[in-house]
Amino acid sequence: MPDDHDESGEHADHDAARAWLPPTRAIRAGRHEDDTSLAPVLWPTTTFVTPTVDEGREMATMIGAERFYSRFGNPTVRAFEDAIAELEGGESARAFASGMGAVTAVVLGLCSAGDHIVAQRQIYAGTQLLLQMACPRFGIDVTFVDGTEPGAFAAAVQPGKTVLVVAETPANPKLDLVDLDEIGAIRGPMTVVDSTFATPLGQRPLDHGVDLVLHSATKAIAGHNDASLGVVAGSEELLAWIWGFAVIQGANAAPFDAMNGLRGLRTLAVRLRQQAETAHRLAEALEAHPAVESVRYPGLESHPQHDLAKRQMDNYGGLVAFDLAGGLDAGRTFVESVELCQLATSLGGPETLVTHPASTTHVNLTPDERERSGIGLGSVRVSCGLEHPDDVVDDVLQALAAIDG
Hints:
alpha/beta
């Protein structure tokens, strides 16, 4: 057998790595600074000693210096970035302090006054508010389209003016899907997909020709409700532009959060598999309940875009959305009646969480804006955790019973 450190051994390892499936890559990626440590190595420092003036100048002017100042780069953060880039099939990645830090860096790092953006209506409210409130202040025009309508994105592109197309699939909170092949086929503007709900193990937008993929890695990627992270992956060229803005923006990821993000990646495949199983069972139970008007889960045949989900998703995820017939009163009663599940706004962690979007994640939208996004006063989103599926389903059913009780 060749030694791991000789030329033939390195070549063999490289060939083996190319054949690794995504769950294996999630365990093995991002280890270049770990030496013999199996756990991610934490570099908690904010700054590093600079050996010479010339080396300091070089690091201050290069992209992603890892041992200069942690706003520019940090070995632990770089390991997380490398892992995400590998999982997404990108050349590079940049981590941020939150998902919105990543979204803001993409939008303001790539667009200038006079530019135009096309985005979908079915989108996380924080992103929507950035686009419709902050962008006009910077002279950036935004057109919102129905992301589920075939050809809507391309039709809204203004040649020579549109710089960015922004999509989110599955969309928060109603799990509407966008055709990734359609987004990837758009020529002219840069394209970015928020793939938070899917994770890199659920879909890979870059494989469909999309330019950038971003995540709120706070959610399923880190997966334990103890890290605030955002990340963008794509080509070296685009990441260089984003990196330049990110250093000025200052929303850099903390090394401790990046370490927890790497820890989360190691178990992402098994967590996602369990969460998807629970979500599917819960969605089927909700479909049969008289208090529920409609259910959204990409794995259900009743999902209006189920065929698209089968084509572009490897895992349907752990999120379920549904609408209660009783509106606000029913929604409030339900989310306040769960016992095992917990009322909270995040997702992707080990605990099953229920969210009432109209009063939390999308509360700052007007009633018309919520309606255009398909969010009703009785809409509920469930992020399935790692509890036994029977317990989750039983808890949801008893909370539904409280609506009529």
